[in-house]
């Protein structure tokens, strides 16, 4: 009930690791629910966010002050159940959950504080966008990869491949951010960086100036310029594709019945994933038009910004 897609993936994970990953997800979802709640003041959020790694293992802890519109508020209302189950885990898994939660909570708290105290609605630079995605998703990739190593199902050194696991998580997060633009905008949450959507070249290509606010993207008459911005966002996320494919190639557990976490249940090996990526890359290539300021990057695969 708290995940559109992750719950299906968890069910494919082998043995008790499914329970570990489920609890990991619920802890981070609880943390994210606090961070996302626009009804909570910064003064209220800051201590909760920065202590969440401790609260997650505090027997009996719950939180009942989420806004009525928060879809996952019930998770926090019944969070004592999660706390109890976290404390039942083997320490090799519990310690990873606590460590990743602590890293993530401080990043989230920093971004929440910046938004609340500077009236800045947007990440300004691609670097800031990457950092946010690292905190909310790259760290998820790190935690999962460390689980695979700690379980003995993957080699020890896999857990040290932080650049690849970070890219994997960031690519998934950026994909969601592109897809959820309008839903987020309606909730007054903006994740697209101004360095991309505010580029002058997109306005020039349409005979006008750059966007000044993100909400202009869905105003009537701005469709073409918004399309070039979206294309720029796609180019940006494709910059993580090679790392993500390399990450999948490192996994020993490729058999779907063995629960390779990132592998679709219908696929047996990274080669098949690569073929699917190739097919979709070709579709993107075929749809690219010279009028798009991102055209050369799209057709030549120059995705690293």
Summed up, what is this model?
This protein has 305 residues and is mainly α. 61% of the residues lie in helices and 0% in strands.
Report what the structure shows.
- The structure is a single chain.
- This protein has 305 residues and is mostly helical.
- The chain folds into 2 domains: 1-120; 155-305, Farnesyl Diphosphate Synthase.
- 61% of the residues lie in helices and 0% in strands.
- It is built from 16 helices and no strands.
- Helix 2 packs antiparallel against helix 8 (126-150) and helix 9 packs antiparallel against helix 13.
- The longest helix has 28 residues, at 91-118.
Average pLDDT across residues? Answer: 89
- DSSP E strands, number: 0
CATH fold-type name of the largest domain: Farnesyl Diphosphate Synthase
The biggest beta sheet reads: none
Low-confidence stretches: 256-263
Shape summary: globular
Question: Superfamily at the CATH H level of the largest domain?
Answer: Farnesyl Diphosphate Synthase
Helix count?
16
Helix content: 55-70%
Order of helices and strands: HHHHHHHHHHHHHHHH
Give the count of structural domains: 2
Provide the CATH architecture of the largest domain: Orthogonal Bundle
Distance N to C terminus: 36 Å
> Could you tell me the strand content as a percent range?
under 5%
Using only C-alpha atoms, the radius of gyration works out to: 20 Å
The CATH first-level class of the largest domain comes to Mainly Alpha
Briefly note the structural class of the backbone: mainly alpha
Cofactor: Mg(2+)
Keywords: Transferase
Protein name: squalene synthase
Pfam families: SQS_PSY (PF00494)
């Amino acid at each position: 009930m708290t995940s559109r897609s992750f719950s299906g993936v968890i069910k494919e994970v082998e043995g008790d690791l499914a329970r570990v990953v489920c609890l990991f997800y619920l802890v981070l979802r609880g943390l994210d629910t606090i961070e996302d709640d626009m009804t909570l003041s910064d003064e209220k959020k800051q201590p909760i966010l920065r202590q969440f790694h401790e609260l997650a293992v505090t027997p009996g802890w719950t939180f009942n002050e989420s806004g009525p519109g928060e879809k996952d508020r019930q998770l926090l209302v019944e969070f004592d159940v999660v706390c109890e189950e976290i404390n039942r885990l083997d320490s090799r898994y519990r310690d990873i959950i606590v460590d990743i939660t602590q890293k993530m909570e401080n990043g989230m708290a920093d971004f929440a504080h910046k938004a609340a105290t500077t009236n800045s609605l947007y990440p300004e630079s691609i670097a800031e966008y990457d950092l946010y995605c690292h905190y909310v998703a790259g760290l998820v990739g790190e935690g999962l990869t460390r689980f695979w190593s700690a379980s003995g199902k993957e080699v020890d050194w896999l857990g040290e491949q932080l650049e690849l696991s970070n890219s994997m998580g960031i690519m998934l997060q950026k994909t969601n951010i592109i897809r959820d633009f309008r839903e987020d905008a309606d909730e007054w949450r903006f994740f697209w960086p101004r360095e991309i959507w505010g580029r002058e070249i997109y306005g020039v290509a349409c005979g006008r100036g750059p966007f000044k606010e993100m909400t202009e993207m869905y105003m009537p008459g701005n469709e073409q310029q918004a399309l070039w911005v979206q294309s720029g966002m796609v180019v940006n996320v494709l910059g993580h594709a090679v790392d993500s494919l390399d990450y999948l190639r490192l996994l020993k557990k490729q058999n779907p019945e063995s629960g390779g976490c990132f592998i679709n249940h219908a696929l047996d090996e990274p080669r098949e994933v690569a073929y699917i990526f190739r097919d979709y890359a070709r579709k993107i290539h075929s749809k690219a038009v010279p009028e798009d300021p991102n055209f050369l990057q799209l057709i030549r695969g120059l995705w690293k910004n």
